[in-house]
């Protein structure tokens, strides 16, 4: 009985790493929620002023002002995008700093299916902010030659 109680107690305690990554996870979850709700103010508040958004097309490397100019007309019409996190890994800079975090996440999207997000967050005076976000398509290895073939034909 004592062992079961100790196991229950220790299983509910977050590890130090989970505790440290929780604020980073909240920023990412909030960014996804704001995009889904077409809340441009909350969405762009998730990023540093000098952030970059790298999209799925090779030409999509946007500064935050460029990405805002692209996205705000959609958000202002109530049109957002929904990417649901399926899994995520967050890593922190060494203990001396703890001011940089990087992540990768598997996402689910109604139109694109399984996608991947990855990037870097920086601890600022306003809290954790996304410095760079990269959205990519997750192509199964056995389909990659066919996909590359389609891309080459388009080039």
Instruction: Say how many strands there are.
Output: 6
Mean of all residue-level pLDDT scores? 88
Which structural class best describes the helix and strand composition? alpha+beta
Beta fraction of the residues?
A: 25-35%
CATH architecture: Roll
CATH class: Alpha Beta
Can you tell me the CATH topology? Nuclear Transport Factor 2, Chain: A
Protein name: SnoaL-like domain-containing protein
Domain SnoaL-like: 24-140
Explain what you see.
It contains five helices and six strands. The protein is α+β, with helices and mostly antiparallel strands and 155 residues long. It has one domain: Nuclear Transport Factor 2, Chain: A (Roll). Strands 2-1-6-5-4-3 form a six-stranded mixed β-sheet. Strand 1 and strand 2 form a beta hairpin. It is globular. The protein starts with a helix and ends with a helix. The N terminus is likely disordered.
């Amino acid at each position: 009985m004592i062992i079961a109680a100790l196991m229950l107690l220790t299983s509910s305690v977050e590890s130090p790493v989970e505790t440290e990554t929780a604020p980073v996870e909240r920023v990412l979850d909030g960014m996804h929620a704001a995009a889904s709700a077409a809340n441009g103010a909350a969405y762009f508040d998730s990023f540093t002023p000098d952030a970059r958004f790298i999209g799925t097309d090779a030409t999509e490397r946007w500064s935050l002002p460029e990405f805002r100019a692209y996205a705000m007309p959609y958000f202002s019409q109530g049109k957002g995008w929904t990417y649901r996190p399926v899994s995520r890994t967050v890593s922190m800079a060494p203990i001396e700093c703890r001011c940089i975090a990087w992540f990768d996440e598997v996402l689910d999207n109604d139109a694109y299916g399984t996608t991947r997000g990855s990037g870097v967050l920086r601890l600022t005076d306003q809290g954790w902010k996304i410095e760079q976000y990269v959205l990519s398509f997750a192509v199964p290895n056995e389909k990659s030659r066919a996909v590359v073939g389609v891309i080459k034909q388009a080039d």
